[in-house]
From TrEMBL:
It comes from the Bacteria. InterPro entries: AB_hydrolase_fold (IPR029058). Gene3D superfamilies: alpha/beta hydrolase. It comes from Faecalibacterium longum. This is Esterase.
Length: 252
């Protein structure tokens, strides 16, 4: 198992300490997001850094595994949709401002220009990664969404509220002012990679991933979609294979 460096640092946005772990010593910084309700250590516990071991050892990528606050946002069933959306937006700001800035410091401390970050996520973590790319493309160069859930209606309710709309990529893509259309429309297809299987427990992810790919096509944002076979289930074993393959393709 690959060893990483552990960090626990104060977040002014979230008003608490947040944990994350870093693997590798340099290269393209890649922000990794866990599955719903997950923690930063889930990536290590399920062998995801090992899936890209060569790239990490050779300094081609550096992996930053973030924590989640899903229990207070997407999964906070006792809270109102507005409150859940407020916490999700705070988490988004944490990822795209505080943690992104910290990633830049750790990845290239002597550089005058901040490095462009890639992001990758699984399950609802794929949603978080895609949100980072769509709403902050000047900070995040690309994203990989593996078995993603992108219809936030199941967690946040309808998109009638403006804040909920911003947290719902399937709706926000059609709304002016939320996504940077000038940057995204000129992007390469491989700057947004979506992958999903057709096996066990992939039903919702398959429907959401296809819907997101269709919506991206409608608004003119390129993406690369791969739908894997009926043996590919909604679990870490397959996410490791997908991440390893896509990382080699992009950074190898």
């Amino acid at each position: 198992m690959m060893e990483g460096t552990y960090y626990k640092e104060w977040s002014a946005v979230l008003d608490r300490e947040m944990e994350f772990k870093v693997y590798g010593h340099g290269g393209v910084p890649v922000l990794a997001l866990p599955a719903r309700g997950g923690r930063f250590y889930d990536w290590e516990n399920n062998g995801m850094p090992d899936a890209a071991a060569r790239l990490l050892h050779e300094g081609r990528i550096q992996l930053f595994c973030a924590d989640s606050i899903d229990g207070e946002s997407l999964l906070a069933g006792n809270e109102s949709p507005r409150r859940r959306a407020e916490m999700q937006e705070k988490y988004f700001v944490y990822l795209t401002s505080e943690l992104a800035a910290r990633i830049a410091e750790l990845n290239a401390p002597e550089s005058k220009e901040k490095p462009l970050i890639w992001c990758v996520g699984v399950d609802t973590g794929a949603y978080q990664a895609v949100q980072c790319r769509l709403r902050r493309p000047r900070t995040f160069a690309g994203a990989m969404g593996l078995s993603g859930l992108y219809d936030m209606g199941r967690f946040l309710g309808s998109a009638e509220d403006d804040l909920i709309l911003r947290s719902s990529p399937l709706a926000a893509l059609h709304k002016n002012g939320i996504c940077d259309k000038n940057v995204l429309s000129k992007a390469e297809e491989n700057s947004l990679l979506l992958c999903v299987g057709q096996g066990g427990y992939e039903g919702d992810a398959l429907a959401d991933t296809q819907a997101l790919a269709d919506t991206l096509s409608e608004v003119g944002f390129p993406c690369h979609l791969e739908v894997w076979g009926g043996d590919v289930s909604h679990d870490w074993y397959w996410w490791g294979k997908e991440f390893g393959m896509f990382a080699e393709r992009l950074f190898g």
